[in-house]
Design a protein that fits this description.
The structure is a homodimer of 213-residue chains.
Chain A: H1 8-27, E1 33-34, H2 36-43, H3 47-55, E2 61-62, E3 66-68, H4 69-79, E4 86-91, H5 95-107, E5 115-122, E6 131-132, E7 135-139, H6 143-150, E8 154-157, H7 161-173, E9 178-181, E10 194-197, H8 200-208
Helix pairs in contact in A: 1-2, 1-4, 2-3
The structure holds a DNA duplex (24 and 24 nucleotides).
DNA sequence: TAGATTGTTAATCGATTAACAATC
DNA sequence: TAGATTGTTAATCGATTAACAATC
């Protein structure tokens, strides 16, 4: 890590800021400055927190003026490693995995989106060799070799719950350092691997709490 | 809300606990007791926090003994409103929406899963009347009427970013109190409506932060 | 009874907000 | 210069952990 001990809460907001800046450069290319107030309003964060978040990484603004949009954009992309192509794999090309794969691949038309889905894996013999928008589906046994040869850095896991830990172990041993998990199960990873859970069922269940009786 | 001021952080962990209990009753039906230690280990939460979370809602355990699994399961289901059927709609039956719809519908075979996808909406004339595993796709214009007639309580939003706020407004005006949003945009909702964001792109971007240079 | 484990209080830790001097 | 807005420190708020009396 290039900056020490930045909290997860801070990192989670950076892509939000970047998205707002990207929207502005598209919709209003003439606009060159933005205040923490405006950036906060557009991303749902308080102005004070916007300034504090950005200040962890440097002095990007000018007092009395605000932040230069293009400059801040570049800085945020650099901080998030999005100023280079990041290659990601996906394991489990079922209903959900297939849709996520196509969704990711469709987003790559976007100039700003530098996360590239470069490999698909599945355990089903029938699927091996099949093609999803130009990316071929391979056996899970090939995962370690492909992580190396394709230089994959992240893995999306959309296998059934009972298979997820095994797939994660395989990925971690192959050198993967960031995993996005959609399987409805609690996974163990070493401390140096980042795991993000995106279990839709869990989200719906917690939302149900807020419904009336 | 039936309990006052329970924090979001607490609510977020309850479905985790419930999932662990459901797994245990399936895999080892003879087991009848569980300690906060064990429940914590299985859900990735410290034992002290497990006890504190549960204590907000009542005294569910016995000192020196632990928690009775079946009883705790029932209590958690009740707290989460999962002891009744909760009906949910989905707007935007594109690639991702279609997959999520089928995924949700497939999960309803599960006895414990009481969240029922009961309506689909799309703006595309071509899709109206089409059927996804038994649920028909309707025009978005019909959303308010269907929310009433079908008693929908939650809405899953999988429309493009530029259409999301409008769909959310329509849903909120129709009485929806909980929204799961997959569109990559910041949405405004009234204070009494719960909004959960599940933007895959944002998750991948924040994970990219943790990759080396 | 002795051992185990809860429910709860106090201590700690961390994140957000408020406030303002610096300065463009 | 006067007004605006940053970067930063101090104050506040909230969540987690530690510790232990209560008690099964």
């Amino acid at each position: 890590m290039r900056w020490n001990k930045i909290s997860d809460a801070v990192v989670r907001r950076l892509p939000l800021y970047l998205r707002v800046l990207d929207e502005i450069t598209t919709e209003d290319p003439h606009k060159s400055l933005i205040s923490s107030q405006e950036l906060g309003d557009s991303s749902g964060v308080s102005p004070a927190l916007v300034r504090k978040d950005l200040a962890w990484f440097g002095e990007f603004g000018k007092q009395g003026v605000g932040y230069e949009i293009g400059y801040l954009q570049n800085e945020l992309r650099h901080i998030l490693n999005l100023d280079r192509t990041v290659k990601v794999g996906l394991v489990g090309v079922g209903q959900l995995g297939h849709a996520l794969a196509r969704y990711q691949l469709s987003r790559m038309k976007d100039v700003h989106f530098r996360i590239m889905l470069a490999a698909l894996f599945d355990s089903d013999v029938e699927k091996w060799g099949q093609d999803v928008d130009g990316v071929v589906i391979r056996p899970i046994a090939e995962l370690p070799a492909v992580v190396q040869s394709e230089q994959l850095e992240m893995m999306i896991v959309t296998v059934p719950a009972h298979a997820a830990q095994e797939v994660v172990n395989l990925s971690v041993n192959a050198g993967i350092k960031a995993i996005l998990n959609f399987a409805p199960t609690n996974l163990e990873v070493p401390a140096d691997v980042r795991l993000a859970n995106a279990d839709v069922t869990l989200e719906l269940q917690r939302l149900a709490y807020y419904l009336g009786v």
